Structures are given as C-alpha cells and as structure tokens.
Amino acid sequence: MKLQTTRRCYRVDRRQISFVKFILEAYDNVAVMSTLDPHVALVRIVIAPGCEDLVNGIVDSFAGQFEVVPVKEASLTGRTAALNRQLVVSSG
Questions:
Q1: What is the CA angle 15-9-67, rounded to 5?
Q2: Considering only CA atoms, which of 59, 69, 84 is closest in space to residue 13?
Q3: CA-based angle 24:26:27, to the nearest 5?
Q4: Are 13 and 66 a contacting pair, CB within 8 Å?
C-alpha cells in the first residue's frame, strides 16, 4: 500500500506567509508549505500521510489570528494555475 500526501491550498494574510511556513517547519516531517502566488498570498501545504488532523488544528489556530481561506486547486486560474501545474510535475 502506497501512502499519499494530502495537498491543500489557502489564501492567507500576505504578511503572515513566513510565519505560517516557520510554524509548519517547526513540526518536523509533518507538512511542507510552498507559496504559489505571493501577490494574492496563495500557499499550498503538502501534508504527510497521517498528519492531516494535526495540520488542520494548526491551520485552525492560524484562523483565530489572521485570515486563512481554503482554496480549491481546481479554481486556480491564469499564472497561478500554470505555476501550480509546474509544481505538480516537478514534485512528482
């Protein structure tokens, strides 16, 4: 059985992108965050198998401090969608 990562996209307060990345990286081997579009503060979080509940809790705690809006990857358009496809191809 092959384990699969979970990918989720969010729009966050642009001033908080580094903070979100820093906090997620503090949890070793749980999740990796990439900025898809810094202009609209769109980020993707790739979550390790079995860590979804932990990451949901972390993201929920962010929402109490600043804007965190889930974004469906299918709704990405234009330059962001092209970058999204490039990241998917390069990651694997």
A1: 40
A2: 69
A3: 70
A4: yes
Position 74 pLDDT exceeds 70: no
Domains (ranges, CATH) in the chain?
6-91 (3.30.70)
The token pair at 21 is 């990345």
With tokens 């769109």, the residue in question is: 42
pLDDT digits 0-9 by tens, 1-57: 678 999 999 999 999 999 999 999 999 999 999 999 999 999 999 999 999 999 999
The span from the CA of 12 to the CA of 91, in Å, is 23
Give the residue from 58, 52, 62 showing the smallest Cα distance to 16. 62
What's the full length of the chain, in residues?
A: 92
12 class by beta-carbon count within 10 Å (0-12 exposed, 13-18 middle, 19+ buried): buried
Q: Cα 42 to chain center, whole Å?
A: 8
